[in-house]
Amino acid sequence: MTEESFQSSNDSDTSVYLLIEVKEILHREMYEAYTRQAKPIIISYGGEYVVTSDNLIPLSGEWDTKRVVLIRFQSLNDLRVCFDSEEYREIAHLRENSVMGKAIIIA
């Protein structure tokens, strides 16, 4: 999906979700410091934690995921403003250096 089609498929009244898949925690203490600091920042920008879980039970296929996090935002713009904010950028290195994973926006 191109950026243009992504934007047109998500009007301002539709919630978007950020799905984070943590494959491996490299530095637990650093990751815990990140999550403690990230949560209030994300909430302050309107993010709502829908689920955070380490208790994953594969239904089909092979999974090696250690944790999933699902965060809801009112709009794609709210999500982008949050993760582009100075507050978040100041702690992003903690996540980048403590876990292996990936994230996707669901619109």
Overview of this protein structure:
- This protein is 40% helix and 29% strand.
- By secondary structure, the chain is α+β, with helices and mostly antiparallel strands.
- The protein has one domain: Alpha-Beta Plaits, CATH 3.30.70.100.
- Strands 2-3-1-4 form a four-stranded antiparallel sheet.
- Helix 2 runs antiparallel to helix 4 (86-96).
- The protein is globular.
- It starts with a helix and ends with a strand.
Summed up, what is this model?
The chain has four helices and four strands.
Strand order of the largest sheet: 2-3-1-4
Average pLDDT over all residues = 90
Secondary-structure arrangement, i.e. CATH architecture: 2-Layer Sandwich
- Briefly note the structural class of the backbone: alpha+beta
What is the CATH class designation? Alpha Beta
Tally of domains:
1
Q: Spans with pLDDT under 50 lasting ≥5 residues?
A: 1-10
SSE pattern, N- to C-terminal: HEHEEHHE
The first-to-last residue Cα distance is 11 Å
Radius of gyration: 14 Å
How are the SSEs placed, and which strands pair?
Elements: H1 3-8, E1 16-25, H2 28-44, E2 48-53, E3 67-73, H3 76-84, H4 86-96, E4 99-106
Antiparallel strand pairs: 1-3, 1-4, 2-3
Keywords:
107 residues; alpha+beta; Alpha-Beta Plaits; four-stranded antiparallel sheet; 40% helix
